[in-house]
Amino acid sequence: MKRRNFISVAALAAAALASTGVASAAQAAPKKKLTASTVLNLPQGAETGISRAQIFDSLVPDPSVYAGKNVAYIWGSGSPTPPAGTVSSRYLPLVRDFGWTVRPLTWWQANHPDWVLYLADGVTPAYLGTGKSVPLDMDNPLVREWYWDNQIQPAIDQGYTLIALDNVVPWNWLHAKGRYDATGAWVDMYTGDLDDPAYTTTVLNWLEYLVNRLHSVGVAAAGNVSPLGVNPYERTASAAAVNLVDLWLHEGGFTRSRDANIADDEWSQTFQLYRSVVKTKPVVDISMTTTPHLADADQKQVDWIIANYFLVRERDTLLTLAGRNEYGMFLDRSELYLNIGKAMCDPQLTASGAWTRNYQQGLVLVNPSSTLTATVTLPTGNWVDTHGNPYTGTITLPTISGAVLTRV
Fold first, then answer.
1. Which residues are 221's β-sheet partners?
2. Residue 291 and residue 31: Cα distance in Å, rounded?
3. What is the rounded CA–CA span in Å between residue 154 and residue 99?
4. Residue 177 in contact with residue 135, Cβ under 8 Å?
5. 3-state secondary structure the chain
6. Residues 23, 201 contacting (CB under 8 angstroms)
7. Average per-residue pLDDT in the chain?
8. What pLDDT is attached to residue 258?
9. Which domains does the chain have, with CATH numbers?
């Protein structure tokens, strides 16, 4: 179990947003910061091999299954007391009430009708998809206090030292438009568009406020900052959110959040964001396969996921390999025991367009292009991939593919 010194990232968020004209969260955030000696409880990965994260544990009846598996972190654990060597966290959505089964929309309309965010029609709450967790106005100081007293403080009282904040999306994917005030009059707050500076400011201000307040009581914040967006505005705002949390969980991974392997510019931007933070904080890469169950996954996609993990990996980079939305149970697969020693350098771009990275006992290769194969000259000697296929001299990577080679 690891304890890590906290370093403020407000300045990083401000700098990132300034380049696109997005209002800075740092301008309105609380000024209280932790001292350099204050520590937070964060997961620590292994020096070599694949460090793993468990996403929810409701279907793991015996936590001893983690023993010897390099499982360093449990996102959304049912217990604040994790197995030895792991860190657990309490799940909460960032801008919604998690207690929708006891506080449905009718409860909010009866008790706090001016706290609920709606779509442009003024009738439909800005729900996430088909969910029923009521979206709240996080600009309201009273809402913030309610959120802390009813969702954060009970988790701290149970013993959790890490809060797992879900759906940390600093662009308006809820299409929220406004709310009603105490008199029942409509208050127009946002445009309702995805790229909405006012909404971005709300989310980043709220996130920084919450992270700072958690730090003031020695509790860390993990954030599921994904999807990352499809344009510079959305990706810059997402990067600012990544910089604010203590642990970044990326549910998209390198498989576009379960739909397909990412490629080209999308891959490049994702890769760059990973590399910009993996040396400074824990990162959880959730790469889901396109099949419902990991056991039925296409081997090429699994190879792609593993190669990308080793390409971006630092000590506290964790991997979750799962089928499509296959959460809650412990999943195992032989590739997760691959160990090629320590990285000998940062990732390198080759003339072919492929990326490589040398390890003590292997070589990692990734071709992110969707249109071009990539032929890479190998270091002298004989090499073999994880399936026993031999290579000497060169290796040609198909489009959107990855490989891990070891010397023989």
1. 163
2. 46
3. 13
4. no
5. CEEEECCCCHHHHHHHHHCCCCCCHHHCCCCCCCCCCCEEEECCCCCCCCEEEEECCCCCCCHHHHCCCCEEEEECCCCCCCCCCCEECEEEECCECCCCCCCCHHHHHHHCHHHECECCCCCCECCCCCCCCCEECCCCHHHHHHHHHHHHHHHHHHCCCEEEEECCCCCCCCCCCEEECCCCCEEECCCCCCCCHHHHHHHHHHHHHHHHHHHHCCCEEEEECCCCCCCHHHHHHHHHHHHHCCEEEECCCCCCCCCCCCCHHHHHHHHHHHHHHCCCCCEEEEEECCCCCHHHCCHHHHHHHHHHHHHHCCCCEEEEEECCCCCCCCCCCHHHHCCCCCECCCCEECCCCCEEEEECCEEEEEECCCCCCEEEEEEEEEEEECCCCEEEEEEEECCCEEEEEEEC
6. yes
7. 91
8. 80
9. 2-338 (3.20.20.70)
Among candidates 143, 207, 210, which has minimal Cα distance to 171? 207
Question: Count of CB atoms within 10 A of residue 260's CB?
Answer: 12
Token pair, residue 252, equals: 């998209």
User: The whole model's pTM is what?
Assistant: 0.91
Separation CA 238–CA 236 (nearest Å): 5
Q: What is the pLDDT of residues 38-92, one digit of tens each?
A: 689 999 999 999 999 999 999 999 999 999 999 999 999 999 999 999 999 999 9
- Decide if pLDDT at 139 tops 80: yes
Relative orientation angle of helices 197-216 and 10-18, to the nearest 10 degrees? 170
Which candidate, 81, 72, 67, places its Cα nearest to that of 47? 72
Q: Quote the CA–CA distance of 134 and 107 in Å, as a whole number.
A: 10
pLDDT in tens, 358-389: 999 999 999 999 999 999 999 999 999 999 99
Confidence of residue 19 (pLDDT cuts 50, 70, 90): very low
Residue whose tokens read 């000696």: 37
C-alpha to C-alpha distances, 373 to 87, 304, 336, 369, 394, nearest whole angstrom: 41, 14, 27, 7, 13
Is the pLDDT at 188 greater than 50? The verdict is yes
What is the pLDDT, as a whole number, of residue 359? 98
State the pLDDT at residue 375: 98
- Percent residues over pLDDT 70 in the chain: 91
Which residues fall within 8 angstroms of residue 241, CB to CB, at 6 or more apart? 13, 168, 169, 170, 203, 204, 207, 223, 225
